[in-house]
């Protein structure tokens, strides 16, 4: 029969993976603090320097590697299919501009300069559409960056292609999750924006915010963990 994932063992493994990645998250945050400088926020704790070479390097190299939006060029041997292929090509290039692919690629490059660039490619769910501010329709293909603070993978694998799973956390409006997953999702407790990861290291998006204590959001939010199970090519989704 089909392989059944042991959720308990998977959760324990993901917890160890997150712990293994803690040192990389901490080092990345230190580099970001250096690049942000002393004026970004009161909690950067960085000495004032005349020229911020790290910030300058990341800005220049990031834009150089992805200077402009990519374009696609389709071709086909069948002459009768050329009008169709040309229409597909024009639509693809318009979608690349509309979805802001250039900025997404640049963000991934900048993330890679600090540690690693992570991108998620898939078909948008209704919850994804809400998170994007309705700039993306449910059922449409999309890609977006995943922050290292939200990411984990099978750290026991020796090669990327051998990873049995990868996962990331995503924070969504509870109403959208209920509409997506059904009435059972109403039992999910609303959570506040996290200041720290599970291991206690401060999240990089807290730089400059100066948040103290629990924060009241404009609507109830819940955090889900999406896991890509490579063996069956399935997406598992459950509360973090």
Task: Describe the protein.
With 240 residues, the protein is of the alpha+beta class. A hairpin with a 4-residue loop joins strand 5 and strand 6. The chain is built from 7 helices and 6 strands, in the order H-H-H-H-H-E-H-E-E-E-H-E-E. Helix 2 packs across helix 3 and helix 3 crosses helix 5. The longest helix is centred in the middle third of the chain and has 17 residues. It has a 4-stranded antiparallel sheet with strand order 3-4-5-6. The two termini are 28 Å apart. 36% of the residues lie in helices and 15% in strands.
Estimated structural class: alpha+beta
Let me know the largest β-sheet: 4 strands, antiparallel
Q: Average pLDDT, to the nearest integer?
A: 85
The string of secondary-structure elements, in order, is HHHHHEHEEEHEE
Helix fraction by DSSP (H/I, runs of at least 4): 25-40%
Terminal Cα span? 28 Å
Strand elements, count: 6
Residue windows where pLDDT falls under 50 for at least 5 positions: none
Key traits:
240 residues, alpha+beta, 4-stranded antiparallel β-sheet, two-stranded antiparallel ribbon, 7 helices, globular
């Amino acid at each position: 029969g089909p392989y059944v994932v042991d959720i308990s063992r998977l959760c324990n493994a993901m917890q160890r993976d997150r712990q293994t990645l803690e040192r990389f998250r901490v080092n990345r945050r230190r580099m970001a603090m250096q690049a942000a400088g002393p004026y970004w926020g009161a909690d950067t704790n960085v000495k004032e320097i005349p020229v911020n070479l790290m910030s300058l390097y990341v800005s220049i190299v990031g834009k150089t590697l992805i200077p402009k939006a990519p374009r696609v060029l389709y071709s086909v041997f069948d002459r009768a299919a050329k009008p169709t292929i040309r229409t597909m090509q024009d639509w693809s290039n318009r979608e690349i501009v509309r979805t802001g692919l250039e900025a997404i690629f640049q963000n991934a490059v900048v993330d890679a300069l600090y540690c690693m660039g992570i991108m998620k490619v898939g078909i948008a769910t209704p919850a994804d559409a809400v998170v994007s501010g309705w700039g993306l329709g449910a059922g449409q293909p999309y890609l977006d960056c995943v922050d290292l603070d939200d990411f984990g993978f099978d750290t026991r694998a020796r090669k990327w292609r051998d990873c049995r799973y990868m996962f990331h956390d995503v924070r969504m409006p509870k109403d959208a999750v209920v509409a997506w997953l059904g009435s059972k999702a109403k039992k999910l407790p609303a959570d506040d924006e996290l200041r720290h990861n599970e291991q206690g290291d401060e999240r990089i998006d807290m730089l400059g915010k100066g948040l103290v204590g629990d924060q009241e959001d404009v609507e109830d939010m819940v955090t889900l963990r999406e896991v890509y199970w490579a063996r069956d090519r399935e997406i598992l989704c459950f509360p973090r």
